[in-house]
């Protein structure tokens, strides 16, 4: 539910910005800027949200190793619970199906996208029917509509809090970090609802004797941490650019703003997102769930980066010469293709691998660091590409060339992701978490 809420919050932004643009910027004299939220405001909003995610993942990831996974998860929210959600799932799952279970947790983002779009469409349809005027460009109640869409996102967060309070602590944390083996046995017994004698608990290694900031840590785990962080950085540069920016390019596929009121405009944006989720995003997530424990994390991550690069090059290189003047389905297919292989690829695997690579004492902290680097990449990608694609609005050809360059750069980032994954990422398929403990004790 934390990942569900995360996606709900993120993907309600594009249609909400349409409503805000109508309410607050409908009286702008320049027809090209009318109904559009200024780029400085949009960039600041996105940057603040993502910066909060960076800080939250670092703080709550570290606290998850210091105070316990369940305790911290119970009172942290959506983006901040990446390290806790992944770590808890990895520590409850077994080696044969662990990747699929963690991927299933992450796949809830797809349903969050769908829920966000569905709620937005429903609210816009209700408000539109009640406005009694299909020709009114900015209905008076539009200022309430976008607030209500955001408010509904608090419902799953509230339900999540109750369920999280009922969760037991993971046995691996209790035994390996708190050194309370008896409590770990009791927790396992409660989770499995089976009788379990104390002597049946497998032997655990001695606790690690080196701190996080030490040569021993970086000698033993530095490569893994670098690999997880740089891969997440690269995929989020691409993923958030395409999520928050390329949606702006698809205005050519939607009805013109001038022919709709505020609710109809936001409704069409939400419908486009819902169709993309059903046809591309959700299938990509579940392809990972099905194949992650058969193909492996490294192969799926390399494959995803590679096909994302192919799609971005196919969109970017001919954009000025072809796509700019041809609003056909080919561009939309490539757009959806990018999202499919992002989720059947590095967007999901970067969430899984850090939860498996590191010993229990550092697992949540290292996942939080990796995720924080990802959100830094999101800031770089979304804001940088957004500014690049919005400059010189009076010169459409210059904008098209700039978008071409941006798409090609994103494709290049995916190629770098292929290389980095091949050189630095360790495969964790079929490997128990206890193997990592044993590897680093001697």
Describe the structure concisely:
This protein is mostly helical. The chain contains 20 helices and no strands.
Describe the structure.
- The structure is a single chain.
- This protein is mainly alpha-helical and 442 residues long.
- The chain has one domain (2-202, 214-434): MFS general substrate transporter like domains (Growth Hormone, Chain: A, Up-down Bundle), CATH 1.20.1250.20.
- Helices cover 73% and strands 0% of the residues.
- The longest helix has 34 residues, at 98-131.
- The two termini are 39 Å apart.
- The model has no long low-confidence stretch (mean pLDDT 84).
- This is Inorganic phosphate transporter 1-9.
CATH class: Mainly Alpha
Using only C-alpha atoms, the radius of gyration works out to 23 Å
Q: What structural category arises from helix and sheet content?
A: mainly alpha
Distance between the termini: 39 Å
Task: Summarize the biggest pleated sheet.
Answer: none
Protein name: Inorganic phosphate transporter 1-9
């Amino acid at each position: 539910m934390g990942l569900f809420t995360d996606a709900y919050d993120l993907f309600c932004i594009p249609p909400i910005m349409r409503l805000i643009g109508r309410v607050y910027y409908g009286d702008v004299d320049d027809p090209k800027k009318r109904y559009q939220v200024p780029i400085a405001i949009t960039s600041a909003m996105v940057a603040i949200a993502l910066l909060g995610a960076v800080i939250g993942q670092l703080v709550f990831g570290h606290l998850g190793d210091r105070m316990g996974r369940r305790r911290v998860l119970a009172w942290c929210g959506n983006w901040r619970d990446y390290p806790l959600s992944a770590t808890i799932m990895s520590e409850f799952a077994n080696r044969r199906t662990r990747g699929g279970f963690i991927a299933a947790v992450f796949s809830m983002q797809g349903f969050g996208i769908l829920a966000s779009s569905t709620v937005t469409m429903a609210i816009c349809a209700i408000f539109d029917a009640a406005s009694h005027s299909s020709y009114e460009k900015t209905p008076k109640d539009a200022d309430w509509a976008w607030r209500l869409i955001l408010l509904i996102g608090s419902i799953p967060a509230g339900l999540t809090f109750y369920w999280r309070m009922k969760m037991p602590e993971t046995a691996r944390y209790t035994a390996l970090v708190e050194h309370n083996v008896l409590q770990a046995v009791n927790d396992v017994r409660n989770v499995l609802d089976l009788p379990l004698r104390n002597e049946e608990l497998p032997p655990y290694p001695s606790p690690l004797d080196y701190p996080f900031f030490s040569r021993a840590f970086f000698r033993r785990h530095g490569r893994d941490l670098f690999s997880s962080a740089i891969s997440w950085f690269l995929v989020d540069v691409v993923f958030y650019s395409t999520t928050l920016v390329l949606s702006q390019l698809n205005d050519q596929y939607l009805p013109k703003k001038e022919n709709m009121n505020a609710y109809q405009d936001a409704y069409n944006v939400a419908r486009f997102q819902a169709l993309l989720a059903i046809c591309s995003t959700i299938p990509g997530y579940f392809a990972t769930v099905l194949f992650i424990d058969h193909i492996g994390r490294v192969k799926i991550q390399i494959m995803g980066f590679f096909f994302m690069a192919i799609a971005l090059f196919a969109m970017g290189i001919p954009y000025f010469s072809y796509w700019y003047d041809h609003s056909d389905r080919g561009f939309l297919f490539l757009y959806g293709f990018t999202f499919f292989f992002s989720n059947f690829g590095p967007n999901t695997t970067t969430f899984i691998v850090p939860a498996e690579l590191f010993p229990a004492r550092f697992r949540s902290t290292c996942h939080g660091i990796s995720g924080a680097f990802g959100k830094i990449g999101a800031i770089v990608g979304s804001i940088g590409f957004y500014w690049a694609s919005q400059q010189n609005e009076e010169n459409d050809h210059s904008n098209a060339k700039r978008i071409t360059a941006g798409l090609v750069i994103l494709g290049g980032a995916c190629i770098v992701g292929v290389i980095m994954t091949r050189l630095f990422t360790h495969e964790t398929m079929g490997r128990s978490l206890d193997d990592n403990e044993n590897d680093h004790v001697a």
